[in-house]
Amino acid sequence: MASSSGGDFKRKFMDGADEHEMRLKRQQIFDHGSHFESPSGSTAMYRNPYVYKGQPPPFPVIRVRGLPFECVKSDILDFFYGLQILDILFVHKGVRFTGEAFCVLAYPLQVDFAIQRNMRNMGRRYIEVFKSTRQEYYSAVANEVLETTRSGSRAKSNDESWRHMESGS
């Protein structure tokens, strides 16, 4: 039975009439363009989706929510293993950590890979990962600076671990 269906396949698509028909269809696509073709003539399949004409690329930042209160930057680096994180900003309210953070990634494409880790566990917690914007990140930075100047110092938990990681101790 399997051999007859394989034979039907060959007869249907490999005989001279169907092959001729396919050549005509291909020729029409090349002659008249297809929906994959851009005005410049290059196919969309081969164009770089991260080339932005006349505007800068999107700012590669994500917002992470649901972090354990004892979370440190090395935990986030482990959670996003394989992605290049340039900056991690823990969000505080007063001197208390809110369980949220912003992560600036090296490339816009990495945002999509980070989003794939949404609802994965860090310890016993489900971590939510969202796309964010440059404005949200800058607002969070401004709030952190304002909170730090108001309170005089930040809780030691998150920022101290980053300094130890950078110094290698």
TrEMBL record:
InterPro entries found in the cross-reference section: ESRP (IPR050666), Nucleotide-bd_a/b_plait_sf (IPR012677), RBD_domain_sf (IPR035979)
Keywords in alphabetical order: Repeat, RNA-binding
Presence of keyword Repeat: yes
Molecular function via GO: RNA binding
Chain spans, region Disordered: 149-169
Claim: Repeat is one of the keywords in the record: yes
Ranges of compositional bias, category Basic and acidic residues: 156-169
Name this protein carries in UniProt: RRM domain-containing protein
Organism name: Asparagus officinalis
